Amino acid sequence: MSFDGFFTHAMVKELNDTLATGRVSKIHQPYPGELILVIRANRHNQTLLLSANPTYPRIQITDVPYRNPKTPTKYAMAMRKYLEGAILESIKQLDNDRVVELAFDTRDELGDAQNLLMYVEIMSRHSNVSLVNTATNKIIDTIKHVSGDQNRYRLLLPGATFVMPPKQENKLNPFIANQAYADLALKHTDVKELKSELQTVYQGLASDTASYLATQLIDSDNTPQTYQEFLQHFDHPTPTLTKTPDGKVSFSVFKPDTIGEQISYPTLSALLDGFYTEKSQLDRTRQVAGQLIQIISNILKKDYSKIKKLNQTMEDTKKADQFRIKGEILTTYLHKIEPGMTEITLENFYDNNSPIKITLSNQLTASQNAQKYFTRYQKLRNAVAHVEEQLALTNQEVEYLESIQSQIELASPADTEEIKLELQQQGYLRENQNKKKKARVTISKPEEYTATDGTTILVGKNNLQNERLTFKVANKDDIWLHVKDIPGSHVVIRASNPSDETIQEAANIAAYFSKGRDSAHVPVDYLPVKRLKKPAGTNPGFVTFTGQTTLSITPDSQKVNELRTK
Predict the structure, then answer these.
(1) In this structure, how many other beta carbons lie within 10 angstroms of the beta carbon of residue 453?
(2) pTM for the structure as a whole
């Protein structure tokens, strides 16, 4: 379902139960449009994510780790100034809209009590997070500044008077007692018509939620009971992730009546982590690595064009013998060629004396025409070796850059700095010459997972990590895994004789962190590290090996997340 007013209702209840009266201990802004508040509540630290990302706006508690920028943003500094140490008094939804109000009790610089409100607006590209002083109703700051040129209705800038987003006029709050649903159910027997009417009458009702409610009401013998049961889903949710046979994934607060694999989660926040983590991480990585993606795409475009031309040249070289044959036939029948001729038909003694038409230049002698064909033959013959070499080099570059593309799609935003360093080392990206002293990039540690039996599994997320993991970190007797013939991560089991279950779990991780993530039956090779070889002069992460065993694995994201070391 969508993150509509109904889902917001359920999420606000969960957040209130978990966070109310907690104290803000840390504040970070790891990515544009997203704020992290670490709140100490009920003797536990909870990480509250407030996202104004236009594609994935939401509010939730998250367990997904974030790497914060070395220099905090101005917005993060402002939020720290006003909110660090503040008590989160309450979390409230405004009517049944996608606006959440967080009330904070804190003290100003003079030590006087101060009440602040933070508004989280979950409205697609209009999403925002605003901190407002309740005494003056002035905006302290917003995560996205909106000027009068962008929005004539409301100004979202520091110092401006805060104006609420437009309300859904004349629409009912579905959680306040009413009979509109019953009247509409009597009036309409078609699901589409009833769905449309429900959306017109009630606040915060997205299309998919409206379709579900319309279906339930039409099929019901007791509409008041059905309506109340529908509302109860959002006060007592059963967080469920559904994967349909056609590959679509959706989340809901209840178990939907649809065909497909259903995964239950303990909380709505855990459900959103399961649904959004991959999608939002890819989106963030693309934002951070936009320049790298563009550079790689441009080089690959040139390489694809070059390969096409080289293959055409190779096809042309197959005609080389035809030029030699024509040259030899002309040499044999020089006496038949008269000055000024532009073509001649002669007997081809290489093909049972069948006639062959040969084009001539009327500006050349008979001997020069023959020599011209021999020259073209020799030129094409000499080109073969050069073209084969260029094809091999270009195909090798394409394979390498496509692997980098795959790594960017699988990487976290923090990993892109190492990918950038690798591209600089390989000469694809210029280093910043303006910096007098180059900042040293330390290769980060591989990601760690723990098998069911407690064995450690390490995963490299880019070529530099892969290289270091395989040849510096891993022991010679450790087991190394990699998907067969496609780009993917190096995976190492820190054991010389792991159990079959651990090998299966490590192979699932290797398949998941590869270009075959969304495929079924992905082949994964495994063997001891000591059988790996690193050919001289090859790109980072490139290895050769023999004597491997191959498994067929269908990647399972849930199992991967279960093995991730906290």
Answers:
(1) 11
(2) 0.64
